[in-house]
Amino acid sequence: MQGLMMDYPLTLTPLLERAPKFFGHKEIITKAGTTLERETFAEWAPRVARLANALEKLGVRRGDRVATFAWNNARHMELYFAVPCMGAVLHPLNLRLPPDQLVYIVNHAEDTVLFVDASLLPVIEKLAPQFKSVKHFVVMGDSVPETTLTPVHAYEELLRNASDTYPFPNLDENQAAGMCYTSGTTGHPKGVVYSHRSMVLHSMGLAMSSSFGIAESDIAMPVVPMFHVMAWGLPFACIMVGADVVLPGPHMQPRDLAELIQATRVTLTAGVPTLWLGLMNLLENERYDLSSLHTMVVGGSAAPRFLIEKMEKQHGLKIIHAWGMTEMSPLGTVSRLTKAQLQLPEAEQFDLRAKQGMPPPGVEIRAVDEMNQAVPWDGKTFGELQVRGPWIAREYYKDDRSANSFRDGWFATGDVVTIDAAGFVQIVDRTKDLVKSGGEWISSVDLENAIMAHPQVLEAAVIAVTHPKWQERPLACVAPKPEFKDTLTKKDILDHLRTRFAAWELPDDVIFIDAVPKTSVGKFDKKVLRAQYRDYVLPER
Ligand code: ADP
Fold it and tell me: For residue 332, which atom of ligand 1 is closest to its CA?
């Protein structure tokens, strides 16, 4: 027997249409230089319609890919809805990717129109001759500055000449709405194609109170760039629930963020740990009123326990740890404590909050051993995390490598984890970052987090270095806080670790560096360090 409910497609269009009706006075606030630009949802929606008309005039048809090369700003929010709702595919490009990867991505996705922030024009001008499919460039500003791009249009001019109503088509919910490429730590980046359905369900997943918990009462600031897994889906979720949106533009330094939170009374924000480590250090010396913030979602790399504890105890800021991937839209797990866990002693609560947490409904998890057999949920046994669900990719876009990651209806994440009896996932390491010492595995993440808890340390990364006897041994690369640059010693670091780790887990050596290199999305870039210290000769232990 079939259910007798309407076959109502899950597309982004109803979200676009309801936002101005119910939340017309809500705002998208963009930091532009020293000013704050404000656009209400009532102003935003007709501009989205104008943009859809303009795209059609440029020849964009159903299924065409439209690329953006832009910071987090209001025009980008317009593209986020105009492109998918007219039936095309939004493709934000990662501003920080090396040129060869950008060219690969644009050609692989066959982007037809490319929108670029005026400040980023020089990057695109250099690459444009290598783009094979781009037919139009649009500069996201009032007019077109002096440029070699052709044919090129000014965003505002296109909008001025377009009607503010658009007959948004009825779309199939499984139609592509957007795509993002993984940052390609090995080989070419891999394309992930989101559907309307996956984006709507993912937005609902984000809104759940056991997840990000975004509500109409929120003023949400995605610091995570709009090119990094669509700002983790926050722009869609905010429009869906009617939350105000604050966008930092290119101003992403800790001081910029603290000022912006203070000025706009942000309640919820999200970004990678390096951002918040920076903010925490800033708050040691400078004072801001950040009392409006009730939730800081931290993910993309492991949020160290000391960061969670210190932010809360010293600054009253609540970090919610989350894990996800480009392939997962990205929501995978969120570390919000259950009623029972909230009765535990404080230290145990912080231990749990430093884990990556529990999947929301919509994400199914299991951890498997080398024989692809599920391992027990005992909080101890390591396994590779596999996931499945309606907002998880089933294959990469036109890529032979899909078969390596997608098997039997599951996506193999490449993350080694433990899962405890409560279903809390802890990411032990990425498979490729684990230090394989003899028959044992050492978590580089655990060591890094412990080292960064040392009060004189700013950042730390632990990498595996080849060892004649043990195959690999850990090498700690430590960036001291500037004031301790000349005084912090290897012995200080090892003594600090000794109480928490067995002797065989300790790094064989500690080297001091100015800063840990970062990836294009602000995570520690250990492959740079690995390449730099490939032939490093470890001292005898
Ligand atoms: P990439 O870093 O490859 O560009 P993603 O942003 O999709 O692409 O990264 C996903 C990976 O980031 C995960 O597989 C995991 O290794 C890591 N990651 C994400 N969130 C966390 C977290 N909270 N703790 C530890 N690792 C995380």
Answer: 20
